[in-house]
Design brief:
With 130 residues, the protein is mainly β. It is built from one helix and eight strands. Helix content is 15%, strand content 48%.
Length: 130
């Protein structure tokens, strides 16, 4: 009976320990506002910086933008615990109607929170607007 109790205790502790391990991601910011920019210079970019605050290597499996006008580029190699990585997001307003926009980038990672969203927004003014 004592042996069974000991085995059960060891099982519970090992499950608890295993679930506490893993990669975890923390961003310096999750949204960026480009403000106002002109249609004559329609390409704008920003960089999101993240840190692996977990205890295992962090891998970004996929970064998908909500629109073809937005392109994410991200750190491809695993990010070790305590290290940082980046996601560069470029919005290209060429051929788009001037006005306000808000786009999202969905990340799929091996972090505790597997799916995350980043947001960009801004206001593109017409070429002839003053």
């Amino acid at each position: 009976m004592k042996r069974l109790t000991l085995y059960m205790l060891m099982l519970v502790l090992s499950i608890t320990y295993a679930s506490a391990q893993g990669a975890d991601i923390k961003f310096d910011k999750t949204s960026h506002d480009f403000g106002t920019f002109s249609e004559s210079d329609p390409v704008v970019s920003c960089v999101f910086t993240f840190t692996n605050v977990g205890d295992a290597p962090l891998v970004i499996h996929q970064a998908v933008a909500s629109c073809g006008c937005t392109v994410p580029e991200y750190t491809q190699e695993p990010v070790l615990p305590g290290k940082t990585g980046t996601i560069k997001v470029t919005y290209n307003g060429t051929g788009r109607y001037p006005g306000h926009f808000k786009k999202s980038i969905t990340l799929r990672t091996n972090a505790k929170t597997e799916l995350m969203r980043l947001f960009i927004e801004g206001e593109m003014t017409a070429k002839d607007a003053k």
